[in-house]
Design goal:
The complex is a heterodimer of chains A (about 110) and B (about 110). Chain A is an all-beta fold and about 110 residues long. Chain A has no helices and 11 strands. Chain A has strands spanning about 5, 10-15, 20-25, 30-35, 45-50, 55, 65, 75-80, 85-95, 105, 110-114. In chain A, the strands form 2 sheets. In chain A, strands 2, 4, 5, 6, 9, 10 and 11 form a 7-stranded mixed β-sheet that branches. In chain A, strands 1-3-8-7 form a 4-stranded antiparallel β-sheet, with no helix packed on it. In chain A, strand 5 (about 45-50) and strand 6 (about 55) form a beta hairpin. Chain B is mostly beta strands. In chain B, strand 7 (about 60-65) and strand 8 (about 70-75) form a beta hairpin. The chains are: A mainly beta (about 110), B mainly beta (about 110). The interface of A and B includes residues 31 and 41 of A.
Amino acid sequence: DAMVIQNPRYQVTQFGKPVTLSCSQTLNHNVMYWYQQKSSQAPKLLFHYYDKDFNNEADTPDNFQSRRPNTSFCFLDIRSPGLGDAAMYLCATSRRTIGSTEAFFGQGTRLTVV
Amino acid sequence: SQELEQSPQSLIVQEGKNLTINCTSSKTLYGLYWYKQKYGEGLIFLMMLQKGGEEKSHEKITAKLDEKKQQSSLHITASQPSHAGIYLCGAGGSSNTGKLIFGQGTTLQVKP
């Protein structure tokens, strides 16, 4: 059974139209991550939550925001998507501090901006 | 900040051949992860290494973490078409924030 679930798998949005991607987990993990992966590139960490503590990467554009209303759910909000935001968005979870346990990934949401 | 560099970036091998992928870190590794990704899908966990000199195997895939904990290698023995995909090494930093970063990935093609 899937433990990290991302919805939708494919999302098409219009240029400048706000879009929200969702991630849910059944693992009760403390940490949830959002990564952006463009074609032929490594996943790039956008931000992560350690419980309720939000950690934003320095180079994450202001256009990207996140919410974690409870342990199980985390959302990625893109306020005004541009063509350059088209990518695969990956959600992951891990227990406590990475380095002692692996991270589990969802199947990803592929975002297309038209 | 920590950076991970993988080599080679891409690899094409004949089925049955052995191959090695390397991952080098700019800083000491505290937990090194190997993941596999099929195109358009999420990451599948392969192995985690924590201790210098540690070696783990799963089926025909073996991963090692060197003694100095700044480099890891992933070795596939007798490659099969099912091994094709993108292999990514990932690492957590020494701080207690849960941050996980990745190398740029190695794309493997296995020719039947």
